[in-house]
Write a structure and sequence with these properties.
Elements: H1 2-22, H2 29-68, H3 70-75, H4 79-85, H5 94-107, H6 111-126, H7 137-147, H8 155-163, H9 173-195, H10 202-223, H11 227-255, H12 260-294, H13 297-311, H14 322-327, H15 332-346, H16 351-362, H17 366-375, H18 385-408
Helix pairs in contact: 1-12, 2-6, 2-11, 2-12, 5-6, 6-7, 7-9, 7-17, 7-18, 9-16, 9-18, 12-17, 15-16, 16-18
């Protein structure tokens, strides 16, 4: 499926460019397409280089925690849940620890820490994969949970709204939680259906109940703070937890008589290898996304949706926010640019801009995550991963629109 979709991006871009040249006389369209391929190829290398330092840093700390046995202790927090969701991953396996750390970092909005831990988890899961170029069930579930991951602290969206002069920058907090929860639940249900996972197991239901309680408690606490305090408090909480985690790794490793410096270097070497290995996969995916955007296909899709909605007699106020939704699975920076463009055009507190902000926080960049995570271990056949992830994206975007009407229309 991924190979066919990747080819479709190029075919659609080429067809659109031919039409614009032959029918509309836009002779510079092919120049724009070629420039986008060069720009995206360069961006791919920049992203990989930018990841080198972060990967070396966190995989270095992670190696200390691994050698000291701390990861095994932390993994016990979620291991009862994951042995039911990922039955092919045995108890005590290193993957449980790295998955736990990745999910915790994602929930706290700590992207710089979540990505290295996620790549480590994917490599741990690859050790159990009998088909080296085909995604295993556990890898698919882990990827879908990442592309639809619930982020409890969407601080960056609050900051963008504040910079644009929003009256209540954090007003989108609860709608974002609802939208991202819908995305995650849909992704989990889709994978559970495809893999025949029993979600009605007592242990699974108990973890879900605890998660809902945690979500509601945090939402109640943060929404009770003034807007400026909420952003500052959430940022403080994230950074405090992150650096406390670093100190825990170091001090526990030292207590267990681990040579923390040598262990850090060993982990950092792995980070360098992973970053370099990612470049071909990033180039392939980002170039395809770049030509699709430069060809005008995304703009045409938005216009078509607007016409379809209008013909049904449905309120179409949300249509101006759709560029963010269409770009989100393809490019995080592109979706962010679309969100800011909507804020500038319609006003930060306008309905389209507000819905756009909710969409931005509802899901992850599916194709980027897929390219990075599966590319890091050489997965070529993604099976039902892409379909489940895109279904989760659709649910998240739909929930974002509904939450926008519920709270702001």
């Amino acid at each position: 499926m991924l190979a066919a979709l990747w080819l479709l991006f190029f075919v659609a871009a080429f067809a659109s460019a031919l039409y614009q040249w032959l029918a509309l006389g836009h002779g510079d369209i092919f120049s724009a397409l070629m420039q986008s391929t060069f720009d995206m190829a360069a961006l791919s290398v920049e992203i990989a280089i930018g990841l080198i330092g972060v990967l070396c840093l966190w995989l270095g700390f992670f190696k200390i925690a691994e050698q000291s046995g701390l990861i095994n202790i932390l993994s016990r927090l979620l291991e009862p849940l994951f042995v039911r969701l990922m039955p092919e991953v045995p108890r005590g396996h290193a993957a449980h620890g790295s998955i736990t750390m990745n999910i915790a970092a994602n929930m706290l909005g700590l992207d710089n820490a979540a990505t290295p831990m996620g790549l480590k988890a994917m490599r741990d899961l690859q050790e159990l994969n009998p088909l080296r170029d085909t995604a295993s069930n556990a890898q698919i579930l882990f990827l879908v949970l990442n592309t639809s991951s619930v982020t409890l602290l969407p601080v960056t969206i609050f900051m963008y709204r504040a910079q644009q002069g929003a009256a209540e920058p954090t007003a989108v907090f609860i709608p974002i939680l609802l939208a991202t929860a819908a995305s995650t639940l849909t992704g989990l249900l889709a994978v559970a259906w495809a893999q025949k996972i029993n979600l009605f197991d007592k242990v699974v239901l108990a973890y879900f109940a605890g998660f809902v309680l945690l979500l509601s408690t945090l939402a109640s606490y943060l929404t009770g703070l003034p807007a400026e305090q909420m952003a500052a408090r959430s940022s403080l909480m994230g950074n405090l937890i992150l650096f406390s985690l670093i100190m825990l790794f170091l001090l526990y490793g030292w207590r267990k008589k681990v040579n923390v410096y040598d262990a850090f270097i060993d982990g950092a070497k792995q980070g360098f290898d992973i970053a370099v290995h990612l470049i071909p996969y990033l180039v392939a995916m980002l170039v395809a996304i770049g030509v699709l955007r430069a060809s005008g296909v995304l703009d045409a899709a938005v216009d078509s949706i607007a016409l379809a909605v209008a013909s049904l007699g449905v309120n179409s106020d949300f249509v101006q926010a759709l560029p963010t939704a269409l770009m989100k699975p393809l490019s995080g920076s592109g979706a962010r640019a679309m969100m800011l463009e909507t804020m500038n055009n319609y006003g930060v507190d306008s309905f389209p801009a507000t819905v756009s902000a909710i969409m931005q926080g509802s899901t992850e960049t599916t194709f980027y995550v897929l390219a990075v995570y599966f590319g890091s271990v050489g997965i070529k056949h993604v099976r039902h991963a892409l379909a489940c992830a895109l279904l989760a994206d659709f649910a998240g975007i739909t929930a974002a629109i509904l939450a926008g009407y519920w709270f702001f229309h």
